[in-house]
Amino acid sequence: MSVRRSLPNPVRAQSERLMRIADRHHNIVKGPVVIALVIWYLVPMDIRKIRLEIKQRHQGRMNFMTSTDLIALEPFEICTIRPPTENASLTFRLTRNCYWNKCRFCPVYKMGAVFSRRSLDEVLRDIERAKALDDLMREQGIGSPKYTQSDYSKLPGLADEILQVAKKAGHDVQTRRAAAELSADVDPRLAWFFSWFNDQPSLQDSLAHVLTWRLAGGETCFLGDADGLILKPEFLATVVNEIKSRFPSIKRFTVYGRTRTAARQRSLADLRAMAAAGLNRVHFGVESGSDRVLAFMNKGESSAEHVEGCLKIKEAGLSCSVYIMPGLGGTELSEEHATETARVINAAAPDFVRLRTLEIFPQTPLEKALKDGEFEECPEEQIIRELRIMISGIHVKTELLSDSASNLLDLYGKLPEDRGRFLKIIDDYLALSDRNKRIFSFNARLQSFLGQYGGLPEDLYETLSPYLREEGIDMRSCPDDILENIIRAIRSRLMP
Ligand code: SF4
Question: If you measure from the C-alpha of residue 98 to the centroid of ligand 1, how many angstroms do you get, rounded to a whole number?
Fold first, then answer.
């Protein structure tokens, strides 16, 4: 899963300094990949800066004339949870949340989000809403002669103007509400996680969503939420056709899916019909190839279903992307998890294998299992050894991506071609002393945090301040146990 949002409280100057420091101190294994990531990460930071500046500038009204009926403009529902490759996609919700919602490790929909199917009318209305907002932006000269990041600066005034017009006309103006009411005693880490959800976006959110998609080229669309394969092929075809007719630049449609749905609920003809309608790729949360791990985690799917589902998707002409979760077997099933996952990858031969290292979230059933002594978390080194087993054991052609902040190492490339390079990265890490492994982890996690949020919240900044020096961060005086706690604190707020 993946979510995007603006950081509410960046300590910007300090954070930029930390980012430079973390980059300078970053060590042997990352290198050029980190530099590329930093450049990439700077983009959303700029967007945030522009948004802040313009918020002040746009206290007054924007003065514009448009042929679009402003009163009719409304926000539309977007998919907060989506794969990282779909971060800049146009998204539409065809269902809401996850009907299964029982995986022990998964925090995503555990706080009261209820599954529902949306009617065709509702979805088509959202497509119309997105189209109207896209048209309005163009009428306002946004994207002319081309879309740029500075276009974000025009959105607050634009949204404000629409709301004023609607209010004057006596219309009920929709503003954002929290996705779920969290009780006052909720774990702060969980509250942080849930603050990402945007169940009912505002007009400005919807405008920004369309603009982000336009800025990225306007070619991709994600249809959510958790399992698009439960939809009837005719339903999906109608939606995809409508989106194509309204947004002809879109070339790729993707969904999340469950392998069990592909294996048991959908015929090959169904899946072929979905592919013929324009669906291109399915992202499966495979997590593990071990049936014991899947059963313990209450995944509701077997390794046989994983293989059958992936093969069926590929046979239908769809691209198959799977997520696997290093660490999911805990200490007890670590090796089995690694070898069995490699076995399933070899049998299923997905086009993409994406790594999502296990992070145990508060108030999940897995956290309870941890507290009850039913599950023992793998240390980072053991998780990296799992990766070594998996990568050594995969013999089919596939692409490996470490596109999640939960991962310690940057492993991007193709198998089998890049196996040697992957193993070198892994072995370089494993050869570090225990102390240097911790420093490596600290640097990597801090880098990811700064990249994800563009800054540090006050409490993390305070925690790090004893180690800040003019020339950078010096963690040499930081005892191991404190360093571990700092790493844990940073990791706990990274979005997977
Ligand atoms: S199927 Fe996916 S979204 Fe649903 S509970 Fe499991 S991991 Fe979470």
Answer: 6
